[in-house]
Amino acid sequence: MKKLFFCSILLCFGIGAFAQQPTVMKTAERLAMWKDSLNLTDAQMKQLWEIEKKYNPEFDTVKFEGIFDEIRAREQTRQTKIKEVLTDEQNARLTQMQINERKARRRMSSQTTQQE
User: Fold this and answer.
1) What is the band of 20 on the pLDDT scale with cuts at 50, 70, 90?
2) pTM given for the model
């Protein structure tokens, strides 16, 4: 049932946002990972999807304009809204997941730099 709900959300937003497919797919993959890792409810998934839908398109536009302060502010707003949806335990796990992701990206970046 949960998978059916999530798939229907992906289908609805995926078709409607065809022009923004890379962003939508990246967001959908991240939310799918969060759903499993944080044991999110369907209501939480819907709220998180709405937050992503609201902030990500603007975020991508600003990125190309090179306004880094605005990017940072929007990302902080997005993170705050996400934390409001999650429980304390889910927030703690999400924070740890984000730390691990950053460490993995740094490791990959340093490995790539060393290979060059």
Assistant:
1) very low
2) 0.48
**What confidence tens digit (pLDDT) does each residue in 29-80 have?**
788 888 888 998 989 988 988 888 777 765 555 555 555 567 678 889 999 9
CB 23 within 8 A of CB 60: yes
- Domain extents in the chain: 2-115
Q: List the structure tokens of 99.
A: 């730390």
Contacts of 13 (CB under 8 A, 6+ apart): 24, 28, 49, 53
